[in-house]
Design a protein that fits this description.
Elements (H helix, E strand, L loop, with lengths): L9 H18 E2 L2 E2 L6 H16 L3 E4 L5 E5 L8 E7 L12 H16 L8 E6 L12 H6 L7 H4 L9 H7 L4 H5 L10 E9 L4 H5 L3 E7 L1 E11 L3 E2 L11 H21 L5 E3 L3 E3 L8 E2 L2 E10 L2 H22 L2 E3 L3 E4 L2 E2 L2 H14 L3 E6 L5 H5 L5 E6 L14 H18 L1
Length: about 425
């Protein structure tokens, strides 16, 4: 049996539904919605949230990167504040809830406190992060890193938006913000002024749906190894004239390498280590390969993720050994190229336990789970800020127009977040 919602939350749930409907109406891009980073869609979403905050009587501010801060002042405004946040941009033709659900949930927490006439002991701020989706600019967590003064200055000019070709700095200026201040390393947020960071987000995979559980308590944001330019160089040859033992077949070498990666994954699972791996691209060179040629070249990518960074680094060592072995036996060269290593963001154990206890008290079914997708809360966690994340069950995954978060599930996740804020503030 599903838990019964607090009847006192009905006004906030009605307002949340109105906000989601308004977001959808203003950013519809058939077949889904588009809230482009530092573009019209993201700007509209930020303006809508800011106006909602002003209507609630909250203090509203933005930083040099355009991150939005909506604050209910506490009895001691000098005390480290509680931050609740998520992002408001989306992928092209995406769903209405990815990111936005967390900002709406935060505003509803503050709306409830205002309605009940409660002044928290410490200030509570809802943050609308800019530029979380990497499909527009190829760098992670642009907005949240900029808030801490962590955005490398060269990215402002070197990152170009995929569809416009204009730089990150140009798009920031066009949206009314001040990249020059970011060049100087200006930090709007400082870890010592933040008591904790909380984020609600739709689950972007099927685990909660499969388990028939409405809410997840996230254990951590998986770190990653990303290999964007892997290459296997063999030798082109006639498909009918060269026997197997004399071939330097790049495709067969690649198949063996990918099989070894999957075997490594299976072993990590057997060892109880959090781990996922994806070969997202795998192709021959269309300018040279034909039906009657032994393929002499393959290019591929790898995205490998885990909550355990030591497991990631050990995987890199293993894969380079596999590449050397296959290369020697098959007469090919397997070059994995440069990699990037994004560190995991582990959630705070005490906050996780509080969420679990509060969920049990309210009869909300939950499960512990890792987040395979990146989220802004990883930036906060890696700044040493106690961080917690709540997932809400969501049919059909995310990054597509068919996101189908049920409002009852959202209500349970939001209710759990509100209970945690009550306890912390």
């Amino acid at each position: 049996m599903m838990p019964t919602l607090e009847t006192s939350t009905a006004p906030e749930m009605a307002q949340a539904e109105q906000l989601f409907e308004s977001l959808c109406r203003h950013t519809t891009d058939v077949p889904g919605i588009t809230r482009d980073t530092y573009g019209a869609g993201e700007n509209v979403a930020h303006h809508l949230m800011a106006q909602t905050a002003r209507d609630l009587g909250l203090e509203v501010a933005t930083d040099a990167a355009g991150n939005l801060y909506m604050t209910l002042l506490g009895r001691d405004p000098s005390a480290p504040q509680i931050l609740i946040g998520s992002h408001l941009d989306s992928v092209p033709h995406g769903g209405n809830y990815d990111g936005a659900a967390g900002v709406v949930a935060g505003l509803m927490v503050l709306a409830r406190l205002k309605r009940l006439g409660r002044i928290p002991a410490r200030s509570v701020t809802v943050m609308g992060c800019r530029a979380e989706e990497v499909c527009w600019f190829p760098a992670p967590y642009i907005g949240s890193r900029a808030a801490f003064g962590l955005l490398p200055p060269d990215l402002l000019d070197n990152l170009k938006r995929a569809d416009t070709g204009l730089s990150l700095a140009e798009h920031m200026r066009m949206s009314g913000f001040q990249p020059e201040r970011l060049r100087q390393g200006e930090a709007y947020l400082r870890p010592q002024h933040i008591h904790c960071y909380l984020e609600l987000h739709i689950e972007q995979g099927p685990a909660l749906v499969d388990a028939r559980i409405p809410v997840g308590i996230v254990t951590g944001i998986r770190g990653s190894l990303r290999y964007r330019h892997c290459r296997i160089q063999g030798r082109y040859a006639h498909a009918g004239a060269v026997p197997r033992h004399l071939r330097q077949d790049a495709v067969l070498a690649g198949v063996e390498f990918v099989h070894a990666l999957e075997q490594h994954w299976l072993q990590r699972e057997a060892d109880g280590i959090d781990f996922v791996a994806t070969v997202g691209e795998f192709s021959t060179n269309p300018e040279h390969h034909t039906l009657t040629k032994v393929p002499g070249e393959v290019q591929f990518t790898m995205d490998i993720r885990s909550e355990d960074n030591s497991a990631l680094l050990a995987t890199d060592v293993y894969l380079r050994g596999v590449a050397a072995d296959i290369g020697q036996r098959r007469g090919v060269t397997i070059d994995l190229g440069e990699l990037t290593n994004a560190l995991p963001g582990l959630m705070d154990v005490n906050l996780r336990q509080k969420l679990k206890t509060l969920a049990q008290q309210q009869g909300i079914p939950t499960m512990a789970m890792a987040s395979g997708a990146g989220h802004d809360c990883a930036v906060f966690a890696n700044q040493g800020i106690p961080t917690a994340m709540v997932f809400v069950r969501n049919e059909n995954g995310s990054h597509n127009a068919d996101e189908a978060m049920d409002m009852m599930d959202f209500a349970l996740g939001w209710q759990l977040l509100a209970a945690l804020v009550d306890e912390l503030s």
